[in-house]
Design brief:
The complex is a heterodimer. Chain A is mainly α. Chain A has a single domain, classed as Ribonucleotide Reductase, subunit A. Chain A contains 13 helices and no strands. Chain A has helices at 13-23, 97-100, 105-114, 135-163, 171-197, 207-217, 222-247, 251-281, 286-301, 307-317, 322-349, 354-358, 361-368. In chain A, α7 runs antiparallel to α8, α7 (222-247) runs antiparallel to α11 and α10 (307-317) crosses α11 (322-349). The longest helix of chain A has 31 residues, at 251-281. Chain A is elongated and about 85 Å long. The relative contact order of chain A is 0.10. Chain B is an alpha/beta fold. In chain B, α1 (8-20) packs across α2. Chain B has a single domain, classed as Nonspecific Lipid-transfer Protein, Chain A (2-Layer Sandwich). The longest helix of chain B has 14 residues, at 73-86. In chain B, 41% of the residues lie in helices and 24% in strands. The chains are: A mainly alpha, B alpha/beta. Chain A binds chain B through residues 45, 47-48, 110-111, 114-116, 238, 242-243, 245-246, 248, 250-251, 254, 257-259, 261-262, 264-266, 268-269, 272, 331, 334, 342, 345-346, 348-349, and chain B through 28-30, 32, 50-51, 90-91, 94, 96-97, 100-101, 111-113, 115-116, 119-123, 126. The structure holds fe (ii) ion (2 copies).
Chain lengths: 379, 140
């Protein structure tokens, strides 16, 4: 324990007297006149049910929440009455709306809750035995799953790290990132299960990935962490999931990637909308985000020289013969170009097109590209 | 009597399947997107709301659509042939695989947010197209 009550209640005569009084039926009932707002809420669609969007009214809603809410710093839910002087100050670090908010965040939360799935039963694991995958392809797939397992564990930690630091007035965002944490825990679960169910087991943990993941976890602010993780890293992972579905050795794997892809796209969409919100409301934060993305892009590039990159080439080429490797390099090169293109598109959409000019991906992708851009490799 | 492909009737039959298979589509979760399917020169608008496909019609303007899956009629035929023969698209014919490399099937979009809907609702969209396995469809 580190937080001790200011009162020892069993030694407090006022408390004991009041407790006895209540037991005699002498109730105060002052709480029945909390003075909070009364509104009518209805599900806008009976089929969809009562959503956070339906509750977006008056003092309970999020549209009227100011950039500096000036509300409680404890656990008082938005719209409840609270005692300013007597609240337990939880010391939230993130107290500005623009620290955490994203357009559509309430919708993303509802979507997340509705589109949950179960890694234990929604992937047809028993069917894996029906397919004969070449050994080297299965080994490469296990390496890919090992990388994904590492990534997903940290993707679970990151929202969990920031969730309790957010002021409780931002409960839609807290709910969303809590849903992200369970999504990512499920992703770590499904990739671990897949690596083991294929008979190969887990392969090499990758230092390049771990340094990059540490950089995400150690970001100075939530918005830096979000730009790095939601927008850049998960954008890359989303493209990798598409690639992985494409090269999946079995329909079982296709199903797995279709399901993880949906969650990942939702996380990326939140990241885009958070960045857009920041730029629309607090454009003075741009330089801070540029600095964070400079290093985020640097770490992302480190993946290009790793067992992951080789495993992807083997998977894309479906083997290790020279012809297969050649084919694999072509496909993986296309994937990398697409990762960068899609990242740039999201930056534009968020209103951060100026980032593209500064991006390390422009020159460095050309330098590491193994397809049509070989001519750009510095000698 | 078999349903011709491509035709509005075909896509309306797929729409009806989302109502017939309500449990399966509810299990996949809410899906709110309006996208296009371009078969050669013909563009079909497909709207999903909550759990089911609510509207299907022919349209001219792709601008309001989140994204458009676009391919020549031969490729759509090949894809639905795979769906019918395998009770769902085989590994080479999932919409992700067809759109991923080589632009065999293109994803057209103006807004990356609309584009992300393709991924956010991928399992529902694939399930929708896979419902062709229950139709008597003329793919000739
Ligand atoms: Fe994930
Ligand atoms: Fe994610």
């Amino acid at each position: 324990m580190s937080y001790y009550g200011s009162t020892d209640y069993l030694e407090n005569s006022d408390f004991l007297l009041r407790m006895k009084d209540m037991r005699k039926g002498n109730l105060d009932l002052g709480w029945m006149k909390a003075g909070t707002e009364q509104i009518e809420v209805h599900a806008s669609s009976a089929k969809r049910g009562l959503t956070y969007l339906d509750l977006n009214q008056g003092s309970y809603g999020y549209d009227e929440l100011a950039e500096i809410p000036r509300g409680p710093r404890g656990a008082a839910p938005r719209g409840a009455s609270y005692e300013v002087d007597n609240q337990a100050d939880l010391g939230p670090d993130l107290n500005l709306k623009s620290d955490v908010w994203a357009y559509k965040v309430a919708s993303f939360y509802e979507e997340a809750v509705s589109r949950q799935w179960d890694a234990t039963t929604d992937v047809p694991w028993a069917d894996l035995d029906k397919y004969d995958t070449p050994e080297e392809v299965e080994i490469a797939f296990a390496q890919l799953c090992t990388f994904f397992t590492e990534v997903e564990m940290i993707a679970t930690d990151l929202p969990a790290k920031w969730c309790w630091r957010m002021n409780n007035q931002f409960h839609e965002v807290k709910g969303f990132i809590a849903s992200q944490a369970i999504d990512e825990a499920r992703h770590a679960e499904v990739f671990r299960k897949r690596a083991l169910a294929g008979g190969v087991g887990l392969m090499q943990a990758l230092p390049q990935a771990e340094h990059s993941l540490k950089a995400i976890l150690d970001s100075d602010t939530y918005s830096e962490a979000s730009a790095f993780m939601h927008l850049l890293a998960e954008g890359n992972i989303l493209t990798m999931f598409r690639f992985s579905e494409f090269i999946s050795p079995t329909p079982v794997d296709k199903r797995m990637f279709q399901l993880v892809m949906q969650d990942e796209a939702r996380h990326v969409s939140y990241g885009l909308q958070h960045l857009k919100w920041i730029l629309d409301n607090t454009p003075e934060r741009k330089e801070q985000l540029h600095a964070a993305l400079d290093e985020a892009e640097n770490f992302s590039l480190s993946q290009f020289d790793s067992a992951l990159f080789e495993a992807m080439i083997v998977l894309a080429g479906k083997g290790t013969s020279p012809e297969q490797i050649k084919r694999g390099i072509e496909i993986v090169g296309t994937l990398q170009v697409r990762q960068v293109e899609e990242y740039f598109q999201r930056l534009r959409r968020a209103g951060f097109a100026e980032r593209i000019e500064k991006s390390k991906f422009r020159d460095l992708l050309a330098a590491v590209s193994l397809n049509q851009q070989d001519a750009a490799i510095a000698s | 009597m078999s349903i011709a492909f491509p035709s509005l009737e075909f896509f309306k039959a797929l729409q009806q399947r989302t109502k017939d298979e309500v449990v399966a589509f509810e299990k996949l979760g809410v899906c709110d997107t309006t996208f296009g399917v371009r078969v050669g020169d013909e563009l079909y608008r497909i709207a999903f709301e909550i759990y089911e496909c609510t509207e299907v019609d022919e349209c001219d303007d792709p601008a309001p659509l989140d994204f458009v899956l676009s391919a020549p009629v031969e490729l759509w035929r090949e894809m639905f042939q795979s769906v019918v023969e395998n009770a769902g698209a085989d590994a080479e014919h999932t919409i992700n695989s067809l759109t991923h490399v080589g632009d065999i099937m293109k994803i057209e979009y103006e807004d990356p947010e609309g584009h992300d809907c393709f991924y956010r609702f991928m399992a529902t969209i694939q399930a929708f197209l896979d419902e062709a396995k229950h139709l008597d469809v003329d793919l000739s």
